[in-house]
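Lab meeting prep.
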Amino acid sequence: MAFTPPAKNPKPVVIAYVGGFRGLIADPGSIEVEKLTHINYAFVNVQHGQAWLTNLATDTINFRNLNALRQRNPDLRILISIGGWSWSENFSDAVLTEESRRLFAATSVDIVRKYGLDGVDIDWEYPGVPGEEGNIYRPEDKQNYTLMFKALRASLDSLQRETGKKYQLTTAVGGGAYFVQHTEMDKAQQYLDYVNIMSYDYKTNPTGIAGHHTNLYGSTKDTAESSAHHSVNLFLAAGVPAEKIVMGAAFYGRGWTMPDGDNNGLNRKALKGARGGGFTRLKDSLMQQGYVRHWDKRARAPYLFHPVNNIFISYDDERSIRAKCRYVKKHRLAGIMFWEYASDPKGYLLEAIRKSIKN
C-alpha cells in the first residue's frame, strides 16, 4: 500500500544523525532533543542479506539511552539508519530478489520492533554506481532500490497493524545527478516520508579543486556547479515532492593545503588534503590560530583560510545555516538534517537551526 503524504506545510523537521558506529554514544543525556524532531541512529550494517547490528553490545545500550530521551521530548522519532559509506557494500545483494527483499525488510523492522523505535532510514551509498572501493553494484539496482522501499513499507505497515503506531521510512540520498540517474525517485518517493539530501561533500578530492563542500548556491557562473539548491532541483525534477525533501547541513569542515594564497584558496587546485574537523573545533580553536573567515556572497557559504600555512577549509556556520533554513521555509521543503551531532557538541549550529526554524 502506497504511503499517504502528510498534510501540507507542517513545522519543518530537524533530523540529527547520531553516530553509534564508534561504540557507546558519549554522554547521550547532553543531546538537545528538545531542538530535534528525529534522531537517525547511524549505522546498522547489512550482512548475510539482513539488517545487522554489528556492534550489538553497544547498539543495545545506545538504543536504551536514546529512548530515555523521550522523557524530555515525547514527540521525538528515533530511526535506524542502515548503510552509510562503510556499510553499503551488500545492499545490492540484499535487495536482488523478491525473497531477499522480504528478508532484508523483515530483519530491518525486527530491530525497530525489538527496541521500540520509530522507523527505518536507508543510506545506500550508492545504488547503481560505486561508492567505497569493493562495493557491489548492478544496473538493476535502479529498480531494486524502489522495490526495497516497497518491501520495507509493507513490513512497517504490518508492524503498525500489530501496535497501532505509525512508522516512518526515509532515505539519505547523494546530491548529484548520478543519484537520480540510477534510481526511480518518482516511484520510490511514494513509499517514503522524507528524502534526506546529503547536500555536503560536494568537494572531496584532496588534490582536486578546493571549494565549498556544503554551499547553498553555486560559487561560480557554472549553472551545473554542485550546491544544495542544484540538488534540490534535481530531486524535484525527478519527481520528489517538495514537502518530502530535507536539506542537509554539514556540522564539520573539509580542508585542503594550497600551493599559495591565490584567491584565499577558493576554487583553486590543491596540493593535498588537510584536517577540517567538527564545527566546535573550528569555532573555538582554529579561528583563534590565524585562520581568517571569509564569506562567499554568491554561494551563501563561509570558508576559512590560513594565510601563512595556506590551508583552506569549507564548512557550514551559523550564518550559512540560517540561509539554509530560510531556503527550506521559502520553498516549503520538509526540513533540515545534519551529519552529525557529535561534530558540534557545544550546539552552536543546532541553536542556529532552532532559532531559524522557529522564526
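Slide two material, second protein:
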Amino acid sequence: MTPPKQVALSLFWRTFFLLALLLSCGVFAWVQTLRALEFEPRAVQSAQQIASLVVLTRSALRASDAINRVSLIKGISNTDSVKLRPREPADKWEPYEVDRFTRVIAQELRAQLGPDTVVASSMNRAPGLWVGFSIDGDPYWLQSDPTRVGPMSWSTISLWGSIALLATVIGSAMVASLINKPLKELSFAASRIREGEFDSRLDENTMTSEIRQVNMGFNRMARELAKVEQDRAVMLAGISHDLRTPLARLRLEAEMSVHDEEAKSNMALDIDQLDAIIDKFLDYARPGETKLMPVHLSSVVDREMAAFRDTSQIRITSRVAIDTKVMADDIELGRVLQNLFENARRYGRSVDTGIARVLVSYSRAGPWVILSVRDYGAGVDPKKLAQLTTPFFRGDAARTAATGAGLGLAIVDKALQRMGGSLELVNAPEGGFMAHVRLKKAP
C-alpha cells in the first residue's frame, strides 16, 4: 500500500498561519476580556438611568395635585420613549430577570428604588422594560425603551472582530513576507550557484545581524566557488593540451617506427582509447552552461545515429515522431544520446551475434516527453542499477566485457540535470537494458 503523500507548506505560509493563529487567539481573548470588563458597568449604568427616570417621574407626580396628575400622566404617555400608566390589580406581567445582565439591572433598581419595586419584561403582553412603583399608595407602571438597555450587541462585536481579524491577516502576511524575504533571496542565490552562475551576491548591509552574517558567508563562498571554477577551467585546458601533445607524438612515432602492423594497430587503438577517456573527463567536468530552446528530438536522434555507422557492432532503430519537440540544449542533448549509444555499443551486445541492437522510442506524460533507449544485451544486476550514474563505476560484470572510463552515464545524468530533466535506468522486462530520458515538452 502506497503511503499518502504529505503536503509540504512553504516557510511563508507556515509563518503566516502561525502568526494569524496567534493574533486571532489574541483578538478573541481581547473581545472576551472587553465584554467581561464592560458587562458590569453597562448594567449598572443602565439601571441608574432608569432609576433616575423613575425618581424624576415620581417627584413630578408628587408635586402635582389630582387633576394635574392626570394631565401629567397623559403627557408623559404621549412620548415615544417613556410611557406612564396606573397599575391595576388585574395586570399580568412577566419577570425581567432571565439572565445575568437582567438580574444585575433588577437588583440595582431595587437597591435604588426600594425592595418593593417590580421589574417586568412585559405587561399585559406589551413587551418592554416595565418598572412598577408606588406614590402615596397609588401604584404605577413606567415603561422605558428596551433598546437603550442591554449588553453590547453581537452585530457590533462581529463588526469590530471582523475588522480586527482582517487587520490580523494583512499584518500576518506582511510580517511573514518580511521574515521570509532574506530566506527567499538566499534560496534564489543558491539556485543560481547550483546552475553555475557564481556572480550572485546578497546584501551585506541588512539591519539584522544574523542575516548579515549569513549573507557575508554566502558571498564569501560564492567568491571561492568562482575561483575554483576558474582554476578548474584553466586546469582542464592545460590537461587537454598537455596530454594530447604526447599522444600525438606517440601516434606519429608508432606510424614511423613500428613495422609490425598488428602491434601498430594495437598501439593506435590504445592511443584512441586514451584520447576518448580524456574527452570523457572533459565532458564530465564541463561547466554547466546550457541554453534551453525548442529542439526537434527526432533530428537530434538521427544526427547522433549517423555517427554509429558500423553495423557490425551496433544497429540503431528510431521510432521517434518528427513533430516531437522538447526544451533542451541541442549540443547537450546530442552528448546525452552519444553516450547512451556508446554505452549500448560497449555493453549491450547480444551474446549470439555480438551486435548491439538498440531501439529508440518515445512517449508523452503530461508536460514531459520520455525518450527510451533500449538494448537487447544481458542487462545489469538490479543491485547495481542505482550506482551506474556514479563516476568511474561500471556495472559490466553481467554484461559483455568492455573498457571505458566509467563516466558515460554520469555525464548523461549530469547533462539532463542541467536541462531540467532526469534519467531513469531499468532492466527491460523481456531482457536488455533501458534508459528513460525525461525532458520537458516544448510549447
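Talking points for slide two:
Confidence is low (pLDDT under 50) at residues 1-7, 397-402.
The radius of gyration is 45 Å.
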